Amino acid sequence: MLTKRIIPCLDIKDGRTVKGVNFVELRDAGDPVELAGIYAQEGADELVFLDISATEEKRKTLAELVLRVAEKVNIPFTVGGGISSIEDVDMLLKCGADKISINSSAVKDPQLINDLVAKFGSQCIVVAIDAKQVDGRWKVHLVGGKVPTELDLFEWAKEVEQRGAGEILFTSMDHDGTKNGFANKALTKLSSLVNIPIIASGGAGTKQHFIDTFINGKADAALAASVFHFKEMEIRDLKEELKKNKIPVRL
Q: What is d(CA 59, CA 243) in angstroms, rounded to the nearest whole number?
Protein backbone atom coordinates (compact mmCIF):
# COMPACT_ATOMS: atom_id res chain seq x y z
CA MET A 1 0.00 0.00 0.00
CA LEU A 2 1.27 3.47 -0.88
CA THR A 3 2.14 5.64 2.10
CA LYS A 4 -0.02 8.71 2.73
CA ARG A 5 1.81 12.01 2.47
CA ILE A 6 1.82 15.01 4.80
CA ILE A 7 2.54 18.24 2.95
CA PRO A 8 3.06 21.65 4.59
CA CYS A 9 2.08 24.54 2.33
CA LEU A 10 3.90 27.84 2.12
CA ASP A 11 1.52 30.49 0.76
CA ILE A 12 3.80 33.34 -0.30
CA LYS A 13 2.92 37.02 -0.60
CA ASP A 14 5.56 39.79 -0.84
CA GLY A 15 8.25 37.23 -0.06
CA ARG A 16 6.71 36.13 3.26
CA THR A 17 4.66 33.10 4.28
CA VAL A 18 1.05 34.12 4.96
CA LYS A 19 -2.13 32.36 6.06
CA GLY A 20 -5.75 33.43 5.96
CA VAL A 21 -9.28 32.08 6.36
CA ASN A 22 -11.39 31.32 3.27
CA PHE A 23 -8.61 32.89 1.15
CA VAL A 24 -8.84 36.31 2.89
CA GLU A 25 -7.61 38.06 6.07
CA LEU A 26 -4.00 37.06 5.53
CA ARG A 27 -1.56 37.20 8.43
CA ASP A 28 2.20 36.77 8.49
CA ALA A 29 3.45 33.27 9.28
CA GLY A 30 7.20 33.67 8.92
CA ASP A 31 10.15 33.35 6.58
CA PRO A 32 9.51 30.71 3.88
CA VAL A 33 13.13 29.61 3.60
CA GLU A 34 13.41 29.05 7.35
CA LEU A 35 10.06 27.23 7.53
CA ALA A 36 10.95 25.01 4.56
CA GLY A 37 14.12 23.86 6.30
CA ILE A 38 12.26 23.12 9.54
CA TYR A 39 9.56 21.08 7.79
CA ALA A 40 12.09 19.02 5.86
CA GLN A 41 13.84 18.18 9.15
CA GLU A 42 10.56 17.40 10.93
CA GLY A 43 9.59 14.68 8.48
CA ALA A 44 7.36 16.37 5.91
CA ASP A 45 7.00 14.17 2.83
CA GLU A 46 6.81 17.06 0.40
CA LEU A 47 6.56 20.82 0.40
CA VAL A 48 4.25 23.08 -1.62
CA PHE A 49 5.18 26.70 -2.32
CA LEU A 50 2.35 28.85 -3.75
CA ASP A 51 2.99 32.44 -4.79
CA ILE A 52 -0.64 33.37 -4.13
CA SER A 53 -0.67 36.86 -5.63
CA ALA A 54 1.44 36.18 -8.75
CA THR A 55 -1.54 35.62 -11.08
CA GLU A 56 -3.52 38.58 -9.74
CA GLU A 57 -0.47 40.85 -9.99
CA LYS A 58 0.27 39.45 -13.47
CA ARG A 59 3.88 38.57 -12.67
CA LYS A 60 5.98 35.45 -12.52
CA THR A 61 6.67 33.31 -9.45
CA LEU A 62 9.57 34.50 -7.31
CA ALA A 63 12.39 32.48 -8.88
CA GLU A 64 15.09 33.64 -6.47
CA LEU A 65 13.00 32.60 -3.45
CA VAL A 66 12.34 29.20 -5.06
CA LEU A 67 16.10 28.75 -5.47
CA ARG A 68 16.73 29.56 -1.80
CA VAL A 69 14.01 27.16 -0.60
CA ALA A 70 15.29 24.38 -2.89
CA GLU A 71 18.76 24.72 -1.35
CA LYS A 72 17.24 24.12 2.11
CA VAL A 73 15.20 20.99 1.45
CA ASN A 74 15.85 17.39 0.44
CA ILE A 75 12.21 16.43 -0.15
CA PRO A 76 10.03 16.88 -3.27
CA PHE A 77 9.13 20.51 -3.71
CA THR A 78 6.13 21.78 -5.72
CA VAL A 79 5.89 25.39 -6.90
CA GLY A 80 2.82 27.26 -8.12
CA GLY A 81 1.65 30.79 -8.86
CA GLY A 82 1.67 32.78 -12.10
CA ILE A 83 2.88 29.85 -14.22
CA SER A 84 1.53 29.97 -17.77
CA SER A 85 4.15 28.65 -20.21
CA ILE A 86 6.77 26.00 -20.91
CA GLU A 87 9.42 28.68 -20.31
CA ASP A 88 8.07 29.39 -16.81
CA VAL A 89 8.20 25.71 -15.89
CA ASP A 90 11.66 25.26 -17.36
CA MET A 91 13.01 28.16 -15.29
CA LEU A 92 11.46 26.93 -12.03
CA LEU A 93 12.71 23.37 -12.50
CA LYS A 94 16.18 24.82 -13.09
CA CYS A 95 15.77 26.76 -9.81
CA GLY A 96 15.21 23.46 -7.97
CA ALA A 97 11.46 22.78 -8.09
CA ASP A 98 10.55 19.08 -8.54
CA LYS A 99 6.93 19.63 -9.57
CA ILE A 100 4.89 22.52 -10.89
CA SER A 101 1.35 23.44 -9.89
CA ILE A 102 -0.88 25.28 -12.36
CA ASN A 103 -4.38 26.56 -11.71
CA SER A 104 -5.83 29.65 -13.43
CA SER A 105 -3.66 29.24 -16.54
CA ALA A 106 -4.87 25.64 -16.98
CA VAL A 107 -8.53 26.68 -16.89
CA LYS A 108 -7.93 29.53 -19.33
CA ASP A 109 -5.95 27.30 -21.71
CA PRO A 110 -6.50 23.58 -20.96
CA GLN A 111 -4.10 22.65 -23.79
CA LEU A 112 -1.32 23.98 -21.53
CA ILE A 113 -1.68 20.82 -19.41
CA ASN A 114 -1.07 18.61 -22.47
CA ASP A 115 1.87 20.75 -23.59
CA LEU A 116 3.57 20.69 -20.17
CA VAL A 117 3.03 16.96 -19.75
CA ALA A 118 4.48 16.30 -23.22
CA LYS A 119 7.56 18.39 -22.39
CA PHE A 120 8.21 17.53 -18.74
CA GLY A 121 6.22 14.34 -17.97
CA SER A 122 3.02 13.86 -15.99
CA GLN A 123 4.89 13.21 -12.71
CA CYS A 124 5.97 16.85 -12.82
CA ILE A 125 2.59 18.49 -13.41
CA VAL A 126 0.09 19.10 -10.60
CA VAL A 127 -3.19 20.84 -11.37
CA ALA A 128 -4.49 22.83 -8.41
CA ILE A 129 -8.25 23.30 -8.22
CA ASP A 130 -9.77 25.88 -5.86
CA ALA A 131 -13.52 25.35 -5.53
CA LYS A 132 -16.43 26.33 -3.34
CA GLN A 133 -20.08 25.38 -3.17
CA VAL A 134 -22.39 27.75 -5.03
CA ASP A 135 -26.10 26.87 -5.01
CA GLY A 136 -25.24 23.29 -4.07
CA ARG A 137 -22.62 22.79 -6.78
CA TRP A 138 -18.84 22.82 -6.46
CA LYS A 139 -17.66 25.65 -8.75
CA VAL A 140 -14.03 26.23 -9.72
CA HIS A 141 -12.56 29.65 -8.80
CA LEU A 142 -9.49 31.35 -10.28
CA VAL A 143 -6.90 34.01 -9.37
CA GLY A 144 -6.44 32.95 -5.76
CA GLY A 145 -10.16 32.30 -5.37
CA LYS A 146 -11.21 35.79 -6.48
CA VAL A 147 -12.78 34.93 -9.85
CA PRO A 148 -15.74 32.49 -9.93
CA THR A 149 -16.36 30.33 -13.00
CA GLU A 150 -19.20 28.06 -14.12
CA LEU A 151 -16.76 25.14 -14.30
CA ASP A 152 -17.78 22.10 -12.26
CA LEU A 153 -15.10 20.71 -9.93
CA PHE A 154 -15.73 17.08 -10.84
CA GLU A 155 -15.96 17.58 -14.61
CA TRP A 156 -12.78 19.65 -14.56
CA ALA A 157 -10.96 17.01 -12.47
CA LYS A 158 -11.82 14.33 -15.04
CA GLU A 159 -10.60 16.53 -17.89
CA VAL A 160 -7.39 17.34 -16.01
CA GLU A 161 -6.67 13.61 -15.68
CA GLN A 162 -7.48 12.97 -19.35
CA ARG A 163 -5.04 15.69 -20.35
CA GLY A 164 -2.23 13.91 -18.49
CA ALA A 165 -1.79 15.73 -15.18
CA GLY A 166 -0.02 13.60 -12.59
CA GLU A 167 -1.86 14.88 -9.50
CA ILE A 168 -4.73 17.09 -8.38
CA LEU A 169 -4.41 19.52 -5.47
CA PHE A 170 -8.00 20.22 -4.42
CA THR A 171 -8.59 23.10 -2.03
CA SER A 172 -12.06 23.61 -0.60
CA MET A 173 -12.41 27.37 -0.25
CA ASP A 174 -15.31 26.81 2.15
CA HIS A 175 -13.03 24.87 4.50
CA ASP A 176 -9.79 26.85 4.02
CA GLY A 177 -8.35 28.10 7.32
CA THR A 178 -11.47 27.12 9.29
CA LYS A 179 -9.83 24.15 11.06
CA ASN A 180 -13.15 22.30 10.88
CA GLY A 181 -11.88 19.37 8.81
CA PHE A 182 -11.38 18.64 5.12
CA ALA A 183 -14.14 18.46 2.47
CA ASN A 184 -14.31 14.68 2.69
CA LYS A 185 -17.54 14.15 0.76
CA ALA A 186 -16.16 16.02 -2.23
CA LEU A 187 -12.82 14.23 -1.87
CA THR A 188 -14.51 10.81 -1.82
CA LYS A 189 -16.40 11.67 -5.00
CA LEU A 190 -13.22 12.95 -6.65
CA SER A 191 -11.32 9.77 -5.80
CA SER A 192 -14.11 7.68 -7.34
CA LEU A 193 -13.91 9.67 -10.60
CA VAL A 194 -10.15 9.89 -11.19
CA ASN A 195 -7.23 7.50 -10.83
CA ILE A 196 -4.47 10.02 -10.19
CA PRO A 197 -3.44 11.01 -6.64
CA ILE A 198 -5.53 13.68 -4.91
CA ILE A 199 -4.04 16.07 -2.36
CA ALA A 200 -6.63 17.31 0.16
CA SER A 201 -6.32 20.95 1.14
CA GLY A 202 -8.37 23.29 3.31
CA GLY A 203 -9.67 22.69 6.83
CA ALA A 204 -6.96 20.89 8.81
CA GLY A 205 -7.29 21.63 12.52
CA THR A 206 -6.74 18.39 14.43
CA LYS A 207 -4.98 15.06 13.99
CA GLN A 208 -8.40 13.46 13.65
CA HIS A 209 -9.07 15.60 10.57
CA PHE A 210 -6.06 14.01 8.86
CA ILE A 211 -7.20 10.53 9.89
CA ASP A 212 -10.68 11.26 8.54
CA THR A 213 -9.49 12.58 5.19
CA PHE A 214 -7.30 9.53 4.59
CA ILE A 215 -9.95 7.01 5.68
CA ASN A 216 -13.24 8.69 4.72
CA GLY A 217 -12.07 11.18 2.09
CA LYS A 218 -9.80 8.64 0.35
CA ALA A 219 -7.15 11.36 -0.07
CA ASP A 220 -3.64 10.31 -1.10
CA ALA A 221 -2.00 13.26 0.63
CA ALA A 222 -3.08 16.01 3.02
CA LEU A 223 -1.83 19.55 2.82
CA ALA A 224 -1.96 22.03 5.70
CA ALA A 225 -0.52 25.40 6.60
CA SER A 226 -1.50 27.21 9.79
CA VAL A 227 -1.49 24.17 12.10
CA PHE A 228 2.17 23.69 11.20
CA HIS A 229 3.20 27.36 10.85
CA PHE A 230 1.84 28.33 14.26
CA LYS A 231 3.13 25.18 15.99
CA GLU A 232 -0.31 23.80 16.81
CA MET A 233 0.83 20.42 15.56
CA GLU A 234 4.19 18.73 14.99
CA ILE A 235 4.53 16.66 11.83
CA ARG A 236 6.20 13.74 13.62
CA ASP A 237 3.47 13.59 16.30
CA LEU A 238 0.83 13.66 13.58
CA LYS A 239 2.48 10.78 11.74
CA GLU A 240 2.74 8.72 14.93
CA GLU A 241 -1.01 9.19 15.43
CA LEU A 242 -1.71 8.21 11.81
CA LYS A 243 0.38 5.07 12.23
CA LYS A 244 -1.55 4.14 15.39
CA ASN A 245 -4.69 4.35 13.26
CA LYS A 246 -3.19 1.93 10.72
CA ILE A 247 -2.64 4.63 8.09
CA PRO A 248 0.62 3.92 6.24
CA VAL A 249 3.09 6.82 6.58
CA ARG A 250 6.82 7.35 6.22
CA LEU A 251 8.39 7.84 9.65
A: 42
